[in-house]
Amino acid sequence: MFSARKCSGVFRAIRLHHFRSHSVSRASPNLTFVPACLPPDPVEVEELQRFVSNSKRLFVMTGAGISTESGIPDYRSEGVGLYARTDRQPVQHAEFICSASARQRYWARNFVGWPQFSLHQPNKAHLVLRDWEKLGKLHWLVTQNVDALHTKAGSQRMTELHGCTHRVFCLACGDRILRSELQEHFETLNPTWKAEAFGVAPDGDVFLTDEQVHSFQVPACHKCGGILKPDVTFFGDTVSQEKVRFVHQRLAESDSMLVAGSSMQVYSGYRFALAAREKKLPIAVLNIGPTRTHLRKGKTPI
């Protein structure tokens, strides 16, 4: 499933299709959004196994690539990621906050995509990380994903760095509701509204035209009438300093770091790899395709 690098402060490339565990389901993965890759090198897989075996308090960071085998696309994978399939960009924080039409467009797309998105299930990688936690191997898990698949898998020692689409909150009063509850409000306000989707995106919405969404009704907060927003960090927004400090504390308690399924292009996650390097922790990176750590020409990769 991933390509990887390892060592004490440096990395070596590894290809790995699947983590394996005795308690993991043998259901076939969904390969629709998994980019083409070479088979794993047995020698390098053994190297990765030694890395994990030697880790006593492993800090794991996951990205969108870990969920592609659950049927959720990522952004950057060659040929199958969002940016490869369309010129569409994810919603920007400022746009959502300032524009009623942007919010209408976002929620209409999300309304259509939610029934399928909410049904996605964890794959082998999610379940193995859960098992590592139960065994005491995994000290802390940080996911950049908003799909709730680690939660569904049963992980508990975890931080959702960018939040989760399964929760919604009011920008004015802070009231929180479940996304499933909001779906019922959408249905009540739009009893006859229908739209056919033209594609799926990593954040749970689908592709719709402006003409399709113009009549879609968006509910306000039932307590104060404020704007409802998914409990996620949109592009252009920042992760709270409180959450960043908490994750740095968990990293400081760890003895090694594993990055799985992330190109590390987003600084909110990349900063922790930089911090791990400064602490001289052994680091492994598993990802299909290049990562930000591979692009530092003339320097030792993180």
How is this structure best described in words?
By secondary structure, the protein is α/β, with parallel strands linked by helices. Helices cover 32% and strands 15% of the residues. It has 10 helices and 10 strands. It has a 7-stranded mixed sheet, with helices on both faces. A 3-stranded antiparallel sheet has the order 7-6-8. α6 links the parallel β4 and β5. The protein is globular.
What is shown here, in short?
The chain is of the alpha/beta class.
List the helices and strands and how they pair.
Layout: E1 2-5, E2 14-16, H1 42-54, E3 58-62, H2 82-85, H3 93-98, H4 100-117, H5 124-135, E4 138-143, H6 149-153, E5 158-160, E6 163-170, E7 176-178, H7 179-189, H8 210-213, E8 228-232, H9 241-252, E9 256-260, H10 267-278, E10 283-286
Parallel strand pairs: 3-4, 3-9, 4-5, 9-10
Antiparallel strand pairs: 1-2, 1-10, 6-7, 6-8
Helix pairs in contact: 9-10
Task: Describe the sheet with the most strands.
Answer: 7 strands, mixed
Q: Kindly state the number of beta strands.
A: 10
Calculate the mean pLDDT score and round it.
84
Broad structural category: alpha/beta
Spatially, the strands of the biggest sheet line up as: 2-1-10-9-3-4-5
Using only C-alpha atoms, the radius of gyration works out to 20 Å
Shape: globular
